[in-house]
Amino acid sequence: MAAQRMREALRDAMAEEMRRDESVYVMGEDVAVFQGAFKVTEGLLEEFGERRVRDTPISENTMVGMGVGSAMAGLRPVVELMTVNFALLAFDQMINHAAAIPYMFNGQARVPMVIRMPGGGGHQLGPTHSHSFEAMFLQIPGLLVACPSTPADGKGMLKAAIRDDNPVIFIEHEALYGARGEVPESDDHVVEFGKAAVRRSGTDVTIVGILRMADIAQQAAKTLANDHGVEAEVIDPRTLRPLDLDTILESVRKTNRLVIVEEGWPHGGVGANIAALVAEQAFDHLDAPVQRVTGADVPMPYSKRLEQSAIPHPENVVSAALATTQGALG
Amino acid sequence: MSVDIVMPRLSDSMEEGTVLTWMKQVGDEVALGEELVEIETDKANMVFESDAAGTLIEIVAEEGVTLPIGEVIARVGEKGETPKDAASAEATEDGAARAGSSAVQTSQSPRIHAADARSDPPDLGDDEAAAGDPSPVSDAAPSTQTDPASEGGRVKASPLARRIAEEKGVDLGALAGSGPGGRVIKVDVENASAAPVPEEQAAATPTPTVSAKEKPETAKGAVEVVELTKLQQTVSRRMAESKATAPHFYLQAEIDMSRCFEARTRVKAAAKEGDVVPSFNDMVVKACAIALRQFPRANGAYRDGKFELYERVNVGIAVAARDALVVPTVFDADRKGLTAIATESRSLAARVRDGSVTPPELSGGTFTVSNLGMYGISNFHAVINAPQAAILAVGAIEEKPVVYDGEIAVGRIMGVTLACDHRILYGADGAEFLARVKSLLSEPLGLAL
After folding, report:
1. Quick check: B186 and A323 CB within 8 A?
2. B222: which of A195, A292, B186, B200 is 20 to 30 A away, CA to CA?
3. B116-166, pLDDT tens digit by residue?
4. Are residue B255 and residue B390 in the same domain, yes or no?
5. ipTM, 2 decimals?
6. In this predicted model, what pLDDT tens digit does every residue of B251-271 receive, in sequence order?
7. CATH number of domain containing B168
8. Contacts of A319 in chain B (CB under 8 A)
9. For residues A324 and A233, is the Cβ–Cβ distance under 8 A?
C-alpha cells in the first residue's frame, strides 16, 4: 500500500493496463503533450508514445465516435472528456452507437471502451463546467456507470473498466483529484463492478452517497454519532450500473431508514432511482419515508455562496437523517 | 384537495416551534414562497414561506401554540373548500393509495407508456412541466377502489410498523405514534407488544416521559406548575429577546421636579371639577416626546443591520395589568398638549386594566416610559421594549437636600435611568437626549410651548 492522490491512482491504472495489454490506448483533448487538463495522464506520452497517447481536436462527438469504431475493431480506447458537460456533445455516439451496437449486433460487435470525465461543483466553474450527470448516463441501457470516491477505488475501478467488454462511463469528481488515500500497489488490484462498499457500519439509518458525497455522508455520520447518538451505516455503491442493490436492501432491512446523497439534480436523480427500488423491494422494512439530499434544482451557480448552497453539505445530510429517526430513538 | 402545512424544521437542533404570527388569515390566497407564518424556534424567530399554493382553509395551530416538527399547523386547499371537505377527500385518497400499494408490480416489467412517449414531440419544455406537476398522483386516485379497512379514518403508520403490528397482533389504532405527524413507527409497536396494557391506558399514557413529569417531590416541597397565558408568553419571550440581542447600557440622572411640582400645583388649584390635571408622568412623556423629535436615533430602531428612523413620535407607557405588562401608546405625543396626553393616558390605562384595550393601541410605539415611582422605588433599570432604541425608567419623586449656588435647599428629586440599545443610540447621543429631557423637566415652561 502507498498513499496516492486520486489523479496518480487513475494514471497508474491506465499505465498498468497499457503495459499489460497492447490494445489499450488513451485519447482526448490535451491528454498527451499537456498531460491532461487535470494532469491525470501525466507521464503517459513519455512512456507509451504518440501512437497510444493521442491529442485530439476539440470535437467530442468525433472523439467518442473514433473510440467506438476502434473498439469495434478490437482496440480498448480510454477517451478522456474534459468535463461531463462536454459529454453532452457526444451523446449521439454514446447512446445511439456505443450503448446500442452490442445489442443491435447481438454481441457479434463489442464496444470495450472507457469514457472518462470529471464532473461536480465546488470550484466556481459555473453552469457549463460543473454539473453531475450520473443519473443521465444511468438511464441508458448498455452503458455501465462508475463513480469512484477514493484513490484505491479510482485505480481498481478504472482497471476493471478497461478490462470490461462493455462501454463504461467513468465519472470522476474534480474536487477528488487531489484526495489522498492508501492504494494497493499490486497490478491485480481490480475492484469488481456491482459491489458496494460499506464505509461505516451502523444500526439506525442507512446513508447512501456517491462520489464526493460518499465522503460528505461519512462526515455526517460522525456528527450523527457524536452529537445525536444516531449510528448511521454509510454505503458507497461505487458503480450505479450495475447497482449493488442487495447491499443497500440488506442495510435498510437492518436500519429501516434510508437517506441518499448525491450532487446531481433531484428530479429523476440517482436518489430518486434508489428510493423507488427500495420502496418496491423493501417497502415493509421502511419505518420512515426515504429522504433524498441532492444538489439544488438549478443550473450550477457561479457565485461562491450560491454554488456552496446548491451543493449538499454534511449538515443537510444530518438533518435528513434526523428526519428519518424522529421519534424513534430515545 | 388540501395540503397540510406542517411545523418546519428551521434549524438543525430544532425539535418544536411556536407559532408567533400568522401573516395570512383563513380565506387568504397563498402563493408558493409567500411569507405565511412567523415561527419561534430554539434559535430565533423566523418567517416561514409557504411550501404550498392555494387558499388558506384552516389554521390548526393558533398563535402562541407550540408543536413538534411535522405536526400540522395549517391547511391549504382550493377556494371555498372547508377543512371538512379536505379531511374526507384525504381519507378517500389514502385508502386508494393503500389499495394501489398492495398490487403486485415488478420492476422488470416493461413500461407500457414507453410507446406513448415516442409520439410526443421532442419538446424539452414538456419534460420540465411534467417534472413540476404533481397532478398524476391525484388523477389516478378516483379510478382505484377504496380499501374497506380505511373506514373510520386511516391510522398513519410506517410500512414496517404495519407489518410488525400484523405479525404481533397489535391494534395500530390504539397506539400513539411518536413519528413525525403522529405516525406510528416501529418503536411504538414494539413498546406496545413488549408491555401489554389495557387499551385505554395505552392510549392515555403514550410515552413514559409524560407521567414522569407529574408532581415531582423536591426539596422545595410540592411544585405547582403554572402555564403562561399568551400575553405572559409574549412578555417573557420579548424581554429575553431584548436582553439577549440588544446591548443595553444605562444612563442615570436625578431631575429636580420642583418647578414641575409648582406648575402642577397651580394647574390643580385652577382646575374645575372634572378637569384632568396632568400627572408628573404625563410631563415626563411630553418631555421625552419633545426630546425624541430632536434626536431621531432615539426615536428609531436597529433592525437587520440598518437604522429605522420613524416619522411619528409615539410614546408607549408601560402599564401593569393583571399578571402581565402591556404598553399602550400615546401617538404623536410631541404634537399633543399636556392635557390631551393626560386624558389619553388615563383612558388607555383604564382600558388596559379592564381588558378592553385593542391591539392597535398597543403597537406602533417608538419609545417607552416605565414608571415605578408610585411604589416608592427611587431608581431602576428597565429592559428595552425591542426593537425600540431606548426606554426611560422613572422613579419616585423624593424631597432631598440639594445644593444650588452654594446654598442647601430642598429639591423634589426624581431618579431616572435611560436604557439604550448601543447598536443605534451611543453613549454621547443618549446622554444628550437625557440631558434634554432633564432640562425640559427642570424648566417646564418648555413643555407648554
Report:
1. no
2. B200
3. 333 343 344 444 333 333 333 333 333 333 333 333 467 889 999 998 988
4. yes
5. 0.71
6. 999 999 999 999 999 999 998
7. 4.10.320.10
8. 9, 12
9. no
